[in-house]
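Blinded run. Sample ID left blank on purpose so nobody reads anything into the name before looking at the predicted structure. Input follows.
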Amino acid sequence: MSLFNALNQWRNTRYENHLTNMKDQNKCPDCHGKGYYAFSANEFVYYTAPYECPGCNGSGLYSDWNESTT
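Blinded prediction complete.
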């Protein structure tokens, strides 16, 4: 169980560092500030606009992402 806990702790720390870096740069953590996803959608993923980031609504800003997550 300690290996599992260590992996979870590493993953959480990595995610928190990612959020902190994106907040400092005022970029959306989901799309890295691009405002869109560069992947092709499939039958399991459906967005109203296929490439628009649902986290920041296509703006690429951390402030918009933060408003939509809270």
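Unblinding after everyone has recorded impressions. The CA atoms of residues 27 and 33 lie 4 Å apart.
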